[in-house]
Structures are given as structure tokens and as C-alpha cells.
Amino acid sequence: MGAQRTTFDKLQRDRAKKAKQAAKRERRQSGGGKEPEEAPAPVLSEGGELSAAELLEQIELIHRQLEDKTIDFDEFEERKADLMARLPID
Q1: Per-residue pLDDT reduced to its tens digit, 55-65
Q2: Is the pLDDT of residue 2 over 80?
Q3: Which of 13, 38, 54, 67 can bridge 50 by disulfide, Cβ–Cβ 3.0-4.6 Å?
Q4: Does the pLDDT value for residue 47 go beyond 70?
Q5: What is the predicted pLDDT for the residue at 26?
Q6: Among the listed residues 18, 31, 34, 4, the one whose alpha carbon sits nearest the alpha carbon of residue 79
Q7: How far apart are CA 43 and CA 29, in angstroms?
């Protein structure tokens, strides 16, 4: 029998933990200052899935975070790929 794969929730928790660590490291290196604004959690529709419009809003949000340098390029690419994979294709 093969090894059990990691669940999506565990991957999300690991990514969130790494993002929090990176933000904390960034604050320490920049000499403190105001804590960056946390990204709002995606709001789920009735079915538990995000609509196409909501996903596009999340993509716009991560673009702004990249421009504001609150996330690095690698994290941006991970989040964008995850959101793009969830877009419904008709």
C-alpha cells in the first residue's frame, strides 16, 4: 500500500504558516513598524465553492499584495496557481 498523500487543508495550513513566518521575518529586518494588513479570508458561496467573480477578486487581491510587497513572488505564484485551478471552465 502506498503512502498517504497530504490533504489540501494541511497544504493550506503550511502555506499560511510560511507566509506568517515570512511576514514576521520581513518586519524584523525592516526594523519593526506597523504590522501588515492580513488578507481577508475568501468568502465561500452556498455550495462551499467560490464563484468565478469571487475568485477573480482574490486574484486581484494577491496582485495588489505583490505590488505592495506584502507577499513575495513565490507565494504569489502559488496562490495564483491555486486560484486559477479553481476557476470554473464552461
Answers
A1: 888 889 999 99
A2: no
A3: 54
A4: no
A5: 82
A6: 18
A7: 33
Q: What is the pLDDT of residues 24-38, one digit of tens each?
A: 888 888 865 555 555
Distance CA 72, CA 44 (A): 25
User: From CA 45, how far away is CA 86, in angstroms rounded?
Assistant: 13
CA-wise closest residue to 88 among 60, 41, 47: 47
Instruction: Taking the CA atoms of 74, 80, 85 and 89 in sequence, report the sign of the dihedral they define.
Output: negative
What 3-state DSSP class applies to 12?
helix
**Is 71 in contact with 62 (CB distance < 8 Å)?**
yes
CB 83 within 8 A of CB 58: yes
**Which cell numbers in the block locate residue 47?**
455550495
Residue spans of alpha helices (H) in 1-90: 8-30, 52-67, 73-86
Say how far apart CA 4 and CA 89 lie, in whole Å: 30
Chain length of the chain:
90
For residue 28, the Cα-to-chain-centroid distance in whole angstroms is 22
